[in-house]
Predict the structure.
Amino acid sequence: GVMHWAFDTWFRQDTIGLRRMVILVREHHVYPDRIFNYSFWHDAGMLSWFAAGASAPLLGFAALAHGAPGPARMALAVAGVTLSLEIVFMFEFHKCGHRVQRGPAVRLLQRLHVLLSPEHHLAHHGGRHDTNYCLITGIADRTLGRLGAFRLLEHLVQAMTGAVAREDDREWTKRHANRGS
């Protein structure tokens, strides 16, 4: 949720090193079902760089710490691998929140709030893309979102830098929303 918020709110399509991801997010706002045109390998390949960056500190510390391996190092290793896999599979999990046809296992996981439900995520696509950022479970929406953390961060960043939240997203949406799918 925090990563999606950052892409929606601050990153521009000309951001060096993030261009493909920003364009994919912008396109998804205008054409939500296009995510089904991308294969798992496309998504996982793009997300693997984020997964490596996020999990490297945990895995590095677990592997390089001095002393005998113990529960803390094992927990860091498990956390690093889990984080990496969640990021790599993030779009596949997110696609479950967009599928009209869902099997009983997916529907159960959605009722249990383990996977995002289409009803929950529609709030993000139905407006200005400034709510319900969580791509997998909705936990960030039910916690950080309800507490107003995203708006607070936006006000702080804007006060410190003068940047306007979602300015690039609104421009992109206006420019591309009326083109055919």
Summary: The chain has ten helices and no strands. Residues 104 and 110 are 10 Å apart (CA to CA). The mean pLDDT is 85. Residues 40-64 form the longest helix (25 residues).
